[in-house]
């Protein structure tokens, strides 16, 4: 029985997902981006970004580095949601830009595709505020020697 006002204890997977979300938020590079990570379940991630004119190239749309950042992060966290002990590293990433994006909210949806031991493959797609796909990418990620528990931003509640 759960006492009034108390929440049930999060399971281990949920604790890992929330710790990865905190890790994302703690990365110094993410202070430069209006973005938020959510991991809804194994092998999935969702990032919301707000693109502003400060992200534009000279022709008035978001620079490709913004696309890469969003796609790589979404695919990476989809893959790392399946790994509870080590930080993954991006070893390769292929991009496809299908539409320019200007100011507004963009969602990056990440999905694990294959691999569970050393190398993982994950993909991501970008969707603009109108629901149009504006880009997609596929990445390969490899287990590193870096323990997640050694990273200051990663903390599993109660452990």
From TrEMBL:
SUPFAM superfamilies in the record: Thioesterase/thiol ester dehydrase-isomerase
Domain called Thioesterase: residue spans: 60-133
InterPro entries (UniProt xref): HotDog_dom_sf (IPR029069), PAAI_dom (IPR003736), Thioestr_dom (IPR006683)
Gene3D superfamilies hit by this protein: Hotdog Thioesterase
Domain of life according to the entry: Bacteria
Keyword GTP-binding recorded: no
One MF term in the entry's GO annotations: acyl-CoA hydrolase activity
Keywords for this protein: Hydrolase
A Pfam short name: 4HBT
Keyword Cell membrane: no
Name of the protein: Thioesterase
């Amino acid at each position: 029985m759960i006492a009034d006002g108390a929440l049930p204890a999060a399971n281990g997977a949920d604790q890992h997902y929330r710790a990865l979300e905190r890790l994302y938020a703690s990365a110094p590079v993410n202070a430069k981006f209006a973005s938020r990570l959510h991991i809804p379940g194994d092998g999935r991630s969702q990032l919301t970004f707000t693109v502003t004119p400060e992200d534009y190239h000279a022709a008035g749309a978001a620079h490709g580095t913004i696309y890469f950042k969003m796609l790589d992060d979404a695919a990476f966290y989809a893959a790392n949601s399946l790994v509870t002990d080590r930080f993954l590293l991006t070893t390769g990433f292929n991009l496809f830009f299908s539409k320019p994006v200007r100011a507004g909210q963009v969602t990056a949806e990440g999905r694990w595709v294959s691999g569970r031991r050393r190398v993982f493959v994950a993909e991501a797609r970008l969707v603009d505020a109108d629901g149009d796909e504006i880009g997609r990418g596929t990445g390969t990620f490899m287990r590193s020697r870096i323990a997640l528990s050694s990273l200051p931003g990663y903390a599993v509640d109660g452990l």
